[in-house]
Amino acid sequence: MDTSEDEIEEDENEWKTSPSLQKTLGPTPAHRVILHFDLDCFYAQVEMIRNPALREVPLGIQQKYIIVTCNYVAREQGVTKLMSVTAAKEKCPQLVLVKGEDLTHYREISYKMTELLMSYCPLVERLGFDENFMDISSMVENRLAQTPGTDAVSFKGHVFNHLTADVDCGDHTRLALGSHIAAELREAVHSKLGLTGCAGIATNKLLAKLVSGTFKPNQQTTLLPENISDIMGSLSGLRKVPGVGHQTAKRLQALGLVSVKDLQLFPLSDLVKEFGASSAQRLKNLSLGVDDSPVTPTGAPQSLSDEDSFKKMSSTKEVLEKIQELLSSLVERMHKDGRQPQTFRLTIRKYSATNKWFSRESRQCPIPNHIGQKICSGCCDDAVVQLLSLALKLFHKMVESSTAFHLTLLNVCFSNLQTREAATSGKGSIAHFFTHSTSPRKTQSISSQSQVVHYSYFHFFMTPGAALHGFKRKQSSVVAEEGPPPPQKVFCSTASSDCGETNNKTTQRLPPNVDPEVFRLLPEDIQKELLSPVYTNSLVNTSTSSATEAEVSHTRENKTSLLFTGARNIEDIKETVDPCNLTTVKHQSAAGQSLFPGDNVMKEGRLSFSRSSDCKFPGNVDPKVFSELPPDVQAELMAEWKQQKPLLKDPSSRKPGRSLMTKDKKAAGKSSQTNNLFKYFKPS
DNA sequence: AAGCAATAG
DNA sequence: GGTTCTATTGCTT
């Protein structure tokens, strides 16, 4: 293994400790150094860690009837990715199979990997579960500034096409330093997570990705600028260019283009006719090894989904049971994440003779707040039941259940994930937030260093320490954290008979939002739960007041007042306190109002926090500028960052004269998100 | 905002 | 090119 003996720990936080630099760089050419990490047969590695005995044997990871990946022992015997199980068994009768449909462990370890990389440098972008890009330009600059002489720095690992023991024509110091960093990071990943993988070091993402695969497994390769055309030319076809998928390849082929060289030489103007200006230029650039796209920190996922495929499903009952199964695990995942999903999507795949297999169809809808809150607060079974009802409606938009149907896949998805400001111990910290007001979303490489940088301040309700140590943050708060079991549960189990219900007629007992069709098909225990008074009284449009409801509200009063002492404002209360009963929440809001007549101050404090939603980081931020910030600020920014989605900035929205309050309200609906990435790590 | 296509691992 | 189980981005309406 070609890793360095250096202890990377010594360089830990290197990206934070910026020397005096950069401002002096002026219009220097882009000195980006980009790493691409690619773990070796990731799923198989995870299974071999869980069961070391598997290292010795040919191992395949099976999903349905497909081997999705396999270890190198199996590869030596001819097993390949995406081979059918039968074919794989023929090739390799001793092949050991592990089921891999449940991605939970892979996902967790995948995020640990990303998190580990982020602890060295914040600019980490995930690509699938097993690959990460890093922009290590800042780290390299730091080392450069600390490097004594102008002596040539040697490379760690391979150098692509470095056939000649070349003279140093050109300055490769940065890439050489990059190769050292890559070696150290690979060693860190190996020692801390037990994972091996490849790294590619180059001047952009495209090249880093391409070069990382040139020596496998568990090796690294650096690409020098003078070898760019070599590596592009070495690709066996256009399809090998990242960004050129099947469809694009077909369209290119229709133009007579099959090799990378063909595309390099093809007139841009002709390409524009087929693809439009922007795609054409992008494709052309890719063929030349040009890629200005920034490493955009990925952060926490923007959607969570669960799906299952099968040979045939043709009854509504089966469909509902499957959806329920999928929802159960999805809701649980969502609950652990802590954010509240705002939209729900159901997708199906219909079998049809004409369109033999593919084609997915989906329908989505907003998630009513009370359901979202149940997810967050842990009333997961309740949430599942109500989501099931939503799902059935969506299903009927796609399938006429009166006529025959044949489904081969179901998928449920939560998106538009919103954080709630967890007023954890009331310790808000302030993140210094800055954006380039002038920067569109162009390149970060050539970007003129003279751009004006605006700094603004945001309240940030997160304890950086907790986040940085990988603790799972409970966004839903005080009640969930230190209270007794969720009230809904309590009531479900205790108040199973009547609590002074007025509408207890057996035919009328179903809660308003539960579709009778759904109900009929539900498991018995769920049905029973649904029939408990809490449900029949508390679901959505309850205009009727009931004893149960009053009781619920009442028992919550004490907690409510406790909460007020720690909560920042009414909105927080609404969100953190009781999730299970809408009317209860209303009570509390009202109470809050009276308790905090002067909560405008509070609101303003929170306002600035929510404003973070229109600050995007990655594209706009010069890593060098970033590296000059104080470490603690950087840490908070990173955390915030991870949650941000690029929003186009409306310059007028920055006008000082504008009401912060209205903005807050807008932004609050949007995506003021706090860090969740760390949730994917088990508390250590 | 909804739905889909394309791309990716 | 699809098979699996995800996830993201961008186009179109």
TrEMBL record:
Signal peptide: none annotated. It holds the Pfam family IMS_HHH_1. Residues 1-13 have a biased composition (Acidic residues). This is Polymerase (DNA directed) iota. Residues 1-23, 288-308, 642-684 are annotated as: Disordered. One of its GO terms (biological process) is DNA repair. Gene3D superfamilies: 3.30.70.270, 3.40.1170.60, 5' to 3' exonuclease, C-terminal subdomain (1.10.150.20), 6.10.250.1630, DNA polymerase, Y-family, little finger domain (3.30.1490.100). Residues 295-304 have a biased composition (Polar residues). Keywords: DNA synthesis, Transferase. PANTHER family: DNA POLYMERASE IOTA. PROSITE patterns: UMUC.
